[in-house]
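re: ur question from earlier - yeah i can do the single chain one, its not a big deal. heres the input i used so u can compare w yours
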Amino acid sequence: MRKVWKVGLVLLMSARGSLPWGAEAHRVIARIAAEHLAPQAQARVAALLSTDAQAGALLAAGSGGDALAAAMAEVAPWADTIKSKKQGAGTDDWHFVDLAAADGAAEISQRCANNNCITAQLRIMTANLKAGGSLPHGSNTYSTSEQLKFIIHFMGDLHQPLHCATNADAGGNCLATHGFREHELHATWDTGLIEQIMKNSQGHQISESTFASSLDTEFASQFAGSANIMDFDQMAVESHDIAFQVAYGPMLAHGILPGVEPRGFLHVDVSRCESEAPDFYNMSPPVDLTVLYNAATLDAVRGQLAKAGYRLAVLLNNVLQ
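and the output i got, formated as tokens:
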């Protein structure tokens, strides 16, 4: 399987926009999870997703696991698509929890005021999913089926390391970088590295379903070990540790970031990088990730995608059985 995915670092350089843990990654995670749902959980997930127009159409047009996987993949990016709309007002902070280098599980409650972070919302929504309850938030009230769509998405975000870590740079959103078709660190992990590993040995892009199946095969032996960690705070700390070892680690090891590193906790608004994190935002030249990242970096990305899919499946099996 590694002959397919460990193809080296093809350096594709051009700036483009980014989405949190890009839509491709979220859909791949959903497809992996769908393959490991127990029959009762499959039926409950299908029933809940049938209320979504696009997912419902996919379920109606097909049958069995393939239709369910397609439906789950269809709704996986939904929580990102509504953030800028009235339907998602006030949900931006639900996608992450900022933890500094020295932070651990004990600091999560401090970084998550008023349950306004990913770990708290996952706890609330899984309880509601089990009970069939709704979730009032501002002018919106999220149904059980909508909370399922949030959960599918947030389990992906929780395993994107830079959704659980920050070096006083808004989780890498403010850190100017070069390489992998992106221009800042967070986007590189959201989409740039995903695009890199979704290629075959000839450098051609492959489908989400093929990629999900290959990841599932590659990491099948780690399913049980991944399922041993089902506490959301533990998952966040695990992602945080990967962020500082793998995402930030090479930069810290080479001492190429400005100032004293790693930094203590500082909340930086992602929309104010230029004023709140100017030394990162205005770095010249940007950090060249093409000389810092290697095959081990891609291994970490693939491992996080697989773990997210496995844990999402176990979570839904536990809640919906």
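Residues 233 and 249 are 22 Å apart (CA to CA). not sure if urs matches, ping me
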